[in-house]
Amino acid sequence: MGPLHNTRECLKAKILNFLNNVAKGSISGDFKPGELDPIQFKKVETIPAETMAFSSLATSEINQFSAQIARLWGKYLEFVASHSQEIAIHLKEKHINAKTEVLSSFIKTKEWVVKTFPIEQNEAGAEEQKALISTTRKILYNTFVQGLTLEDLQASVRFEEIPVLFEDMYTLESPSPSKLYKDKEGVHLFIFVHGLMGCSDDMRLMKDILLVRFPNAQFLCSCANEGQTEGDIGQMGINLAKEVKEYIGKYYPDLSSIKKISIICHSMGGVISRTALQYLEEYKDKFYTFLTFSSPHLGCMFQSSKMVEAGMWILTKVKKCLSVEQLGMTDSPNKDEKYMYKVSKAIGLEWFENVVLFSSFQDMYAPFESARIEVIQQMAEDPAKAALYKEMAQNVLSRIKANKLYRINVAYNICLLYTSPSPRDLSTSRMPSSA
Fold first, then answer.
1. How far is CA 107 from the centre of its chain?
2. Which residues, 6+ apart, have CB-to-CB distance to 190 below 8 Å?
């Protein structure tokens, strides 16, 4: 061992000795109220030369170490400044992967390979989802939250606020030929369509989320029907189609610069978009994903909430809201003249590679089955309406030529949103009481 090692061992021994003296009360303090409390040591007549030499050596080493740290910090700042973009990309990917690992655990996926997309709802599966909702959050909390750092907790959404998603994915046995998107270059255009009494800002949050994930994509938040959603849905579809054509003609006169077109809709916006598709056939080779959030694709004949049913009656009888009348399928006594029946036969959905239908048991406005394009046994109580409803569902599903159909049920923690929730029972309104 060298002299430096011996010196360090000596310093360690002196520090231990000092701490022992503190513990034995050998160091006392003379404290006066209102003043700092100076610690007074036992008087030492002289300081040994060995201690002075050791102190000088320790001070020199500390100064050298601090200088090295300062130089290292400077080099680090230079590196960050010169490689900021690469570092940002790396941290972004790391953050997305970490978030994906956690959030994907809230998605419960079931896959089926089918000859045709099913029209009957799996009611046993619905009961199973109901039972899983409350237990899923507890399991995930124990799995992830307890192992997270404080920084992770501050950056993450509260686990109890994250919805649980039940994804039913249907794949056709004989898939259709896929469009060769990978061999093409160009932009991905997302079109957002709001619902009844909505505006383009309703879809801004979704746009911002996709913009982070797809920074090179382009976005059109439709505003063609703002303030007009109480009118004819057919006219709203024409307005949307005109808006899309004008946007593409203005920004992409060379259509080959567009690689994909995806449409994302909320509520009645899904019906408006399906109406508009018949006027957008010139872009059929570009269409990629059709995604709807609680869109009543089969109308609102079977409304589960009496309050919402009363509200629809007021809108149709008092405010003369034609779109609500069309959704309720009271716009004509003749089946073939009902607007929702006519739009169920409209072309357009067969042009998309992916069809994604989001729905929620807890949505009191758009019926759960209508948003999923399904039928349930309870509808048999009204045979005439049930037959019409089933025919419409068959019309819409027969149009879908996508290789995959996604039906996703979103279960929120309603108790966080209302202090006195009154959940409804699945057997009467399809809303799980454990949500």
1. 11
2. 207, 210, 217, 218, 219, 220, 262, 263, 264
215 by DSSP, 3-state: which? coil
**In one letter, which amino acid is 127?**
E
Predicted structure pTM score: 0.71
Show the 3-state SS of 73-101. HHHHHHHHHHCHHHHHHHHHHHHHHHHHH
* pLDDT tens-digit readout, 249-271: 999 999 989 999 999 999 999 99
pLDDT tens digits for 30-89?
A: 444 444 444 444 555 567 777 777 888 888 888 888 889 999 999 999 998 999 999 888
- Strand, coil or helix: 68: helix
> Helix 269-277 crosses helix 233-251 at what angle (to 10 degrees)?
70
State mean pLDDT over 364-373. Answer: 90
Burial class from Cβ neighbours inside 10 Å (0-12, 13-18, 19+) for residue 261 reads buried
Looking up tokens 């949307």 gives: 240
Residue 132 main-chain phi, psi, to 5 deg: -80, -20
Which of 164, 171, 169, 163 is CA-nearest to residue 110?
169
- SS3 per-residue string spanning 355-385: EEEEECCCCCCCCHHHHHCCECHHHHHCHHH
Instruction: For residue range 186-195, list pLDDT tens digits in order.
Output: 899 999 999 9
- Amino acid (one-letter) located at 412: Y
**Local structure of 12: helix, strand or coil:** helix
Q: How far apart are CA 276 and CA 236, in angstroms?
A: 8
Q: What is the mean pLDDT of residues 333-352?
A: 94
